Amino acid sequence: MxxxxxxxxxxxxxxxxxxTVWMYFALLLPLTALIYQLVEKEKRKxxxxxxxxxxxxxxxxxxxxxxxxxxxxxxxxxxxxxxxNSDKSLKRKERKRKKQRFLILGILxxxxxxxxxxxxxxxxESMAVLLQTFGIAxxxxxxxxxxxxxxxxYTLESIAYLSDIYWEKTRADGKLINIALFMSFFPKLIxxxxxxxxxxxxxFTVRDIRYENLAQGYQRILWGLFKKLVVADQLxxxxxxxxxxxxxxxxxxxxxxxxxxxxxxMDFSGAIDIAIGSAKIFGIxxxxxxxxxFFAKNAGDFWHRWHITLGAFFRDYVFYPVSLSRKVSKIxxxxxxxxxxxxxxxxxPAIALFAVxxxxxxxxxxxxxxxxxxxxxxxxxxxxxxxxxxFLTLLEKLRLSEASIPVRIFRGIKLLFIVIIGEMFxxxxxxxxxxxxxxxxxxxxxxxxxxxxxxxxxxDRWGYVTIILGTLLVxxxxxxxxxxxxxxxxIERLPKPLxxxxxxxxxxxxxxxxxxxxGYDSVDLIYAQF
Length: 530
What we know:
530 residues; mainly alpha; 2 domains; 22 helices
């Protein structure tokens, strides 16, 4: 039996294997863990790699080859750049020029592959519209290329790896298996977190599976399944119905934006919980991607707490390099002559922020709504930076501190509105739809149509109860975590019978109230498409 035939059979048997399919957490994970523990220590990395490739294959079939080729390319190029770093026969400037050429080659190649798989139709269609606007006849036939799963994530990881070698922050890894595992490790493949090479060294450390890691890993997975199946997937049919419905006024638009915001947070943070829990089973610590984002004080702080690893990537590999570049420095100096030093100090961060948020919006996918979403946060964060000092001065005059209750309430309401409006555009099918919804919130804000159709959006009465109680539970946990309350430690202190009873109750809550099985369509992970 050939390997390709075996993988094809596995693909048909498992179908679209995902983090919320029972075959993942009830078969793939324990089977991988069992084999991992039984084989000799020097072979354990191969067990993880093979499981990752099987997982990849069930989602993207033979596009797995693209991941393997990329792994070989990144491995080889990393060694070349590292070799140049170590070549003392070259002068400093010559060494820098030489390794810079290879770094640019690597980044361009990786980005070109990403563009070819994910953005070709978007670029072609956008070019056609632009040329037709100027009266130039140009048509584009949609190609419909399917992108390999996780390509947006492992492309950024690869760029970070090569850049860190270039900056001599890390050494190139001579073991191809390490690079291949780094770029395909199944727990972080679909939705991240985006991992730096120096923080993923746990991937390559062989260790025994311990009961403590196994228990904590599955507990984290269970919490992720609760968020995803009990809340996010219960909301999904309602979100689809409201955004796809013909009835729309300001109240419906606001409701649609609100429930999608809840769905996306539960879906994405739940998937990250599952990813972190899965890695924990093998004693591997993945980076946290959320720290109670809705407790942020402003939009900038929100993005320090939401999708933390993506923000950290753009900060270190886009914002800082752009800010420190000679061209931007020159623009800033010229601006100072025209608008003065006080105003010009915002020029450099504005240019860097524009680069960050343009790329961040486009990274989410080939849609203009995503590009607008990125620029939306660029404008808001820039305004916040400009107004931060005047705002603090105003608080001083009013004799209020940033920690005072009125200020916290004001900031909380402002942030919630900013996030909900942003998610409304993010979810809208087109920019026209997004602006139509936005306009209606301010010109036609009434709730009679919402209440009239509340039971006609594919969520029944018990569904609403489940969603509300589930959301309140997650919110309560976030409040306790923000306050520093040690939730896990207190659960672990319970007597063993009570502790086991607690976790069994949690399992049955997910089984009983989760959205799956007959009558439910499987809901894809939202950030998996990015």
